[in-house]
Amino acid sequence: MDSSVVTALGLVLCLLLISVWRRGYGKGKFPPGPTPLPIIGNMLQLDTKNINKSICLLAKTYGPVFTLCLGSERAIVLHGHKAIKEALIGHGDAFAGRGSFPVSDTINKGLGLLFSNGERWKQIRRFSLMTLRNFGMGKRSIEEQVQEEAKCLVEELKKTKGLPCDPTITLGSAPCNVICSVVFQKRFDYQDQKFLYLMELLNENVRILSSPWIQVYNSFPSLVHYLPGIHHKLIKNFHDLSAFVLERVKEHQAILDVNDPRDFIDCFLMKMEQEKQNPQSEFTIENLVQTTLDLFGAGTETTSTTLRYGFLILLKYPHITKKIHEEIDQVIGQNQSPSMKDRSNMPYTNAVINEIQRYIDLVPASVPHAVTEDIQFRQYLIPKGTTIIPLLTSVLYDNEEFPNPDQFDPHHFLDERGNFKKSDYFVPFATGKRACVGQSLAQMELFLFFTTILQNFTLKPVIDPNDIDITPVASGFNHVPPSYEICFLSSKST
Which residues hold heme (predicted)? Predict the structure, then answer.
């Protein structure tokens, strides 16, 4: 057959595929969006190194609610405070499903707290919230644990003797120990080799999840899963973490006292015993391991990354750090440990911590949601199961609520009198029924760790502050700060 005829037939076939695709695309009254190509969808219109920025640019053309095809899957993007609030709060139940995140689906198979759905999610979330509150979440008892861990963190940082150090593992160890005390009733020494290995796994997982390769995996999971790539390392790391948790579970089973539950695992095991006659029970060993791993991972990485990113920002802006030192001296002094009651008297410090969370935009697109039923949203009919992407970046970087959002400015959270100013646009923990269950603990940790460290140390960069780059090195699932070194100089010696 003549080559020109083959080319023509190929072109006709492509046009037919596009035509069929577009006809299917219109079903269900989906919002408008860029025209997808067969198989790859809109992937050519997205920068895999910074998908969220690409989505924000598309919103300028297609509006606050539009359709995006990631590979063969159709998703609805919510852009801006109004659209996200209307969906996740105004239609909270309908938008409370967990959307497809293929690499995680492969790893946890819909178990646990973070990626479960339906009745499983409702039961596990209800149980987790109740149990965490019983163990002091948001109460004085957990505050005392955080304060004690903050003191341990200070002692660990003193060992650096003011010399340049990479703070990644040390800053991550503190929030990890807090969640370990709740989940395992145990904290680890900062030099414990098994503990250090776990921290390395958690840090590596965040880096991998934020890589362009995982964006490709999530778009073409059935193909990419069988190819060589770093997703295999991610899967292995999660298996190692699960094995660690399962080992802790078996230890708990051996000495469980139903009259004296010590931690989250004990309470879950007791719930399993209560429901052992129920064949449909969601309280199984598999769900216990995954839920514990969800709490362990989420309770460590979000806070530790925020701390690490926050100190990098403070190195770049020493005039901001100086004002925090002054507020600490004025409100707390040097002879007592910071406590949560101090926060209301420290508007500038509080504003800086909020601005760190806003500016770093840790999880730009949140974790994908899904609609749990066919839903009429605005003028569109969204079918049950459709993935929803609430773009938190579009709220945290709203230029009307936060003038010059690309600039780090604590005054975004201060009024004209210097008082702390709350904002409905402050959504680093997401919003609605899928908002982070550990928000109150994370906020407590951030305040107490930041203030305790700055009460005891002066921060010194190893390069000129003007040369410090605070641009994230990965912009996928998480924003990951660049690696850096810092000197923690004892305040008593400066």
Answer: 436
Domain that holds residue 270: 6-490
Residue 228 domain flag: yes
Judge whether 262 lies within some domain.
yes
Torsion region of 419: left, alpha or beta (phi above 0 gives left; psi -120 to 50 gives alpha): beta
Task: Locate 125 and state its tokens.
Answer: 């979330």
What is the per-residue pLDDT across 198-225, written as a single tens digit (0 to 9) for each?
A: 889 988 988 898 888 888 888 888 888 9
**What count of other Cβ atoms lies within 10 Å of the Cβ of residue 29?**
12
Position 445 confidence tier, pLDDT thresholds 50, 70, 90: very high
User: Crossing angle of helices 231-254/212-219, nearest 10°?
Assistant: 90
Check whether 152 is labelled as a binding-site residue.
no
The DSSP 8-state label assigned to residue 483 in this structure reads P
Q: Is the Cβ–Cβ distance between 81 and 398 less than 8 Å? A: yes
- Give the position of tokens 């989420």: 298
313 within 8 A of 359, measured Cβ to Cβ: yes
How far apart, in whole angstroms, are the C-alpha atoms of residue 175 and residue 173? 6
Take residue 330 and report the two structure tokens written for it.
Answer: 């004025």
Question: Do 441 and 138 meet the contact criterion of CB atoms below 8 Å apart?
Answer: yes
The H or E element that residue 239 is part of is helix 231-254
**Tokens matching residue 392:** 């938190």
CATH of the domain at 152: 1.10.630.10
- Our count of domains for the chain comes to 1
For 77-87, b where at least 16 C-beta lie within 10 A, e where not — what string? bbbbbebbbbb
- Which residue has tokens 């990098």? 312
Q: Report the DSSP beta bridge partners of residue 475.
A: 479
- Number of Cβ within 10 Å of residue 286's Cβ equals 14
At residue 72, the pLDDT reads: 80
The token pair at 61 is: 């053309």
- The token pair at 328 is 């600490």
Evaluate the CA torsion angle 272, 276, 281, 284 in order and state its sign.
positive
Task: Give the residue among 476, 392, 387 at the shortest CA–CA distance from 101.
Answer: 387
Burial string for 343-374 (b: 16+ CB within 10 Å, else e) reads beebbbbbbbbbbbbbbbbbbbbbbbbbbbee
Beta bridge partners of 457: 490
Question: Has residue 1 been placed in a domain?
Answer: no
Distance CA 269, CA 261 (A): 9
Per-residue pLDDT of 258-297, as tens digits, reads: 888 888 999 999 999 999 899 899 999 999 999 999 988 8
| Integer angstrom CA distances of residue 446 from 361, 396, 423 | 15, 18, 18
Q: What is the 3-state secondary structure (H, E, C) of 104-166?
A: HHHHHCCCCCCCCCHHHHHHHHHHHHHHHHHCCCCCHHHHHHHHHHHHHHHHHHHCCCCCCEC
Q: Which residues contact 44 (CB under 8 A, 6 or more apart)?
A: 37
192 lies in a domain?
Answer: yes
CA distance linking residue 168 with residue 482, whole number of Å: 11
